[in-house]
């Protein structure tokens, strides 16, 4: 008798790549980084940093944080812009 192994939940690195790739497709902009990723009850949640408006000097460029929800297969369920800020801004939130 052979036992079928239940597939492992995808890794956080896989979820990060999936969130960034799908957000790129929707926004038409390449994400700068993924600042947070965590499993949720039925998939993954990630915060993705995106360059929204490039300015000179670069410290004045406008950045945005998008909160992305993925299902268990890595499909994008929802996204929402949660914050806009200049690149040179220091986050004082703890």
What does this structure look like?
With 94 residues, the protein is of the alpha+beta class. It has a single domain (12-86), classed as Nuclear Transport Factor 2, Chain: A (Roll). The protein has 1 helix and 4 strands. The protein has one helix spanning 12-27; strands at residues 31-40, 43-53, 62-71, 76-86. Strands 1-2-3-4 form a 4-stranded antiparallel β-sheet, covered by helices on one side. Strand 2 (43-53) and strand 3 form a beta hairpin. The radius of gyration is 16 Å and the shape is elongated. Mean pLDDT is 88; it is low at 3-7.
| Structure summary, number of beta strands | 4
- Biggest sheet: strands side by side, in what order? 1-2-3-4
- The rounded distance between the terminal residues' Cα atoms is 54 Å
Shape verdict: elongated
**Element order, helices and strands?**
HEEEE
Helix/strand class = alpha+beta
Averaged pLDDT: 88
> Residue ranges: pLDDT <50 for 5 or more in a row?
3-7
Alpha carbon gyration radius: 16 Å
The CATH architecture would be Roll
The count of domains is: 1
């Amino acid at each position: 008798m052979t036992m079928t192994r239940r597939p492992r939940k995808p890794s956080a690195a896989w979820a990060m790549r999936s969130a960034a790739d799908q957000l790129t497709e929707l926004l038409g902009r390449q994400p700068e980084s993924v600042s947070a990723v965590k499993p949720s009850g039925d998939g993954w949640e990630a915060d993705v940093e995106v360059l929204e408006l490039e300015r000179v000097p670069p410290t004045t460029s406008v950045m945005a944080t998008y909160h992305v929800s993925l299902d268990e297969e890595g499909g994008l369920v929802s996204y929402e812009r949660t914050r806009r800020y200049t690149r040179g801004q220091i986050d004082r939130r703890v």
